[in-house]
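@channel sequence for tomorrow's demo:
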Amino acid sequence: MIVRVDASSPVPVFEQLRAQIARLIASGQLAPGAQLPPIRHLAHDLGLARGTVNKVYDTLVQDGLVATQGRHGTVVLDVPAPRTSPEDLADAADTLAVVARQLGLGKNEAHAAIDAAWARLG
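structure tokens (generated this afternoon):
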């Protein structure tokens, strides 16, 4: 599982991590039955407090995306594919525009960031 957090982002670290894991599950990159890294390992790898990662995992449990199995860790549940619409992409674009503006970036920089993100997806 590859996730990144940016401490300098206006988006809270908790939300960055929660959203990335949720997207990995929704996209199928984290398949049902896949095990998430132990909280202490992920916290160490990302340089976060264990409590932050624990809160993310608890929220994913509440959202019905994962289940905790005690010593056996946290696993991805088989959830139905989300229903999406063009409005969902428009909402995401609005969020990106707001964040870009908060960072003092213009339209060209936002487009470059999208192009780079798309390239990283492969």
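heads up for whoever presents: The first strand starts at residue 35 and ends at 36.
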